[in-house]
Every structure is written in C-alpha cells, then in structure tokens.
Amino acid sequence: xxxxxxxxxxxxxxxxxxxxxxxxxxxxxxxxxxxxxxxxxxxxxxxxxxxxxxxxxxxxxxxxxxxxxxxxxxxxxxxxxxxxxxxxxxxxxxxxxxxxxxxxxxxxxxxxxxxxxxxxxxxxxxxxxxxxxxxxxxxxxxxxxxxxxxxxxxxxxxxxxxxxxxxxxxxxxxxxxxxxxxxxxxxxxxxxxxxxxxxxxxxxxxxxxxxxxxxxxxxxxxxxxxxxxxxxxxxxxxxxxxxxxxxxxxxxxxxxxxxxxxxxxxxxxxxxxxxxxxxxxxxxxxxxxxxxx
Length: 293
Prior knowledge:
Helix content is 6%, strand content 46%. By secondary structure, it is mainly beta. Strands 1, 2, 3, 4, 7, 8, 9, 10, 11 and 23 form a 10-stranded antiparallel β-sheet that branches. The longest helix is centred in the N-terminal third of the chain and has 15 residues, at 70-84. Residues 160-177 have low confidence and may be disordered.
C-alpha cells in the first residue's frame, strides 16, 4: 500500500494527484444522502418527524492528464478508466473497495464504496497529451476512516472448576465462572467508528458488550478450536460469519449489529464466555472515524 503525499488519491494501487501521470484539478465531497421518516399530520397542518437515516455520499474528482504526447496520455488514461469500470466489482453484490485520500495538512483517510461515473470532458487536447474527465466514487457511508487500523485483543481468564492458572500475564482481569476479560478501544475521530470483532475458539456462548451501555451481542453456539467468528457491523456487510463461510446471524442474541459502534473517545469492551482451556480470544479492530477528510 503506497504512502500518499498531500493532494493524492489511491484506488486499487493506482495513485493520482500531485506529481502523478493523472492529476486532480478539483475534489468535491458531495452531499450526505438522507432518508427521512417524516409523516404529514393527518387532518391538519404540520409534519411529525420520524427516523432520519443517513445514506452515503458521492465524491467527485475532476481529473486530467498533461503529458508530452497522445500515447503517454492514453496509457495513463486507460489505467485510470479501467479501475472505474471493473467488471468483477460491478457484478459482485456487497463488495466494495477503498478510495484512499490525503488532502493538504491531513493524514491519509479512506472511504469504502464503488467507482461509478467516468465522463470525459473533451478529447480535443489528446494529440497534445491533455485530456480531462469527471470521475465519481459512491461511498457507502458518510464517514472518513483512518488509513491505519487500531487493534485490541482480549483473552479469557478462566475459572473452570474453581481454579486459576498462574501466572496471569495480562491485567486488568475480572473473575467470573467460565471466564471474562475487558479492555479499552479508543476512537480518536469525531464520529462513531465500526468495530470488526473476531472471536476465536474454543468457546461456548461468547458475548461482547460495550461497558456502560446496554449494547451487547451473545452468540448461542460453540466456536470450536481452530475456528473463528467475525461480527462485522459495517453497513455494506453487516454480517456474522464463521471462518468456514457459514452465517451465524441466527445465533445472535441481544443488540442489533447496527448498534455496535464506538463513539469518539474511549470505549471499554467486555468479552466473556465458557472456555475451560483459557485459549480463546476476541480481537477488536477499528479505524478512527472523521466527519471530514
């Protein structure tokens, strides 16, 4: 994954922008889509507000080449346009790709979505190596996510038949029948972040809870040794999938996946379940979420 300089963008490993064969003249963040649940007052004036849901946003890049000749311009152009028209991506539901962005005076962030329109603004300058286009990218969410992931791994402290295996290398610990552990994840952004939670067996009835809230998800199932289950609350995925590809969505109890979010700041995550071996674990990965790039 290429390190980006200021005013550069990366899609599929192709970097455009400052100093590249394809430059970016303008970058438009687009409006946040919304689905409103307002209802007109029956038999009277006014509106009753309902649920307001945010959709995604369409990012727009004005791109151009300024090369020495038509052949060089076309080579750069075809590399970019081929990314915007990927057949496998367009024909695979729920599949998204990251668009990485670094604007001036900021760190690299990313959005997940799909490249959509690619509209040349004119080819008259192609013989001289100059051609421009408007390229759009539909992000499936409104937030900008940090390029680097943060990770917290929790392992169980087991009590089994009442005994504890010493020494215990990781603190803090919480005593309970079966076993449990909690630790903190930190979202440095200003928007809610999605945690990707992977539970590795052997463990029965694992549960993950956000301490201080009423949000918790328990899986009424056994995850065998060598298997894992990933809880993915991101809107384009929103799934609970075992490592062999099986869906365990029907085994979930408690909160909805949609509610599994890390607000800005610190969130304490509690992991529990029955594991007499003490070798199961829970790994929480997230990207800091921002309202602007």
